[in-house]
Amino acid sequence: MAEHFDFIVIGGGSAGYAAARTARETRERVAIVDGGDPLGGLCILRGCMPSKTLIYSAEVLHLARLADRFGLTIPVAKADMPRLHKRKLDTIAEFAEYRQEQLASDRFTLYRHRARFSGARELTLDDGTVLTADAFLVATGSVVSWPPVPGLKESAPWTSDDVLELDRLPESVIVLGGGVVACELAQLLHRLGSRVTQIQRSPHILKEHSPESATVIEEVFRGEGIELITDTHIKQVERTAKGFRVSFEHEGKTLVREAAHLLNALGRSPATGGLCLDRAGVELLSDGHIRTDEFQQTSNPAIYAAGDVAGPYEIVHVAILQGELAARHATGRPAQPVDYDALVSIVFTDPQIAYAGIPEKELKARGIDYVSADYPFDDHGKSILMEAKHGYVKVFAEKGTGRVLGAECVGKDGSELIHSLAVGIALKATAADLLKTHWYHPTLSEIWTYPLEDVLEG
Known about the structure:
Mean pLDDT: 95
CATH architecture of the largest domain: 3-Layer(bba) Sandwich
CATH class of the largest domain: Alpha Beta
Helix content: 25-40%
């Protein structure tokens, strides 16, 4: 006999837990199915929290090495990898334990198994248990991609999981990729003391962001000593007696780079393998994501999807919003689709890249009449005294009304600064509205007043 539930979530990460919690507000029988070991999801265990813990430590180390610029003498500054690793483990342990307690609470029925669909409203677990439900949510996240690069998978390189578990300093690393993970980890490894070569296929790193912001990061990376090579075609990856060899084409020549280690950071793919979604009538997009509507509902109206497995953005807070939306809609409550025109996205390189609202390329694609203005950090008081002169802020506003549509920040603590504008964008504020704020001097945040004043005049 199958056991029946009101709502079943497959995957106990950020989207899955948010959906289960939301469904439980009005439904008694809610189940979570997750065969991962340990529980907790990508963000807490192998993503946001461990990576940002390590990145912050590397930033402190970087600043210590620049002590002379601040009139300080710090004789020795180097990474203690075993202690760094332990600090990371200690830091994420509390988050992981709390999430595991939430998932295993008596509010939910937790199945520690893998699941596959065996019908339109039926799951079969790997121990043979059969579950049915009024509604399901697929929130299985993503997995590392293995593009068809000759020798890549066979050579068994590192993935981001391996880098985040390091308790020793690698002498040299080749990083394949130019996305967020690749760039964050390339700079992390370099600042900790590794010799880093980063090879990117596109003309710019961070191709999902503006070329202007990518150029800033490229200049910083090269200035710090990372060998960054863009606009390449990777021909072959080989494991050698000393490590790895990568052959690639660049500017009409075949180049070779060797290092003790290789990091595959060529992206991630939706984790749908083994779910047998076709048996439930769930369609996939051409890129492998699950096709969903504005309420996260799939081609099977009883099945929803949220988070990395659904896209279009692989960001934790978006996964949470999608999970909550799906659960409300599935339980017959008012549900407001996620407003992606108020999106916030951040890259934790140093300087950081952050944007809120509608990116400029999308404003152009939609034919929106807008004005923009920018201001550089190297002409701003607080950033100058902080030796944080790389980057800029930029504001996009609707022409005529002055309503702020988007904002971009490339600079020190951009992840914090962007939220000043994100609030205004979400509330549909104008540049004039935001200039009513008391912007304190000297702060990094007050840099926003300059482009706001310019778009107001424009």
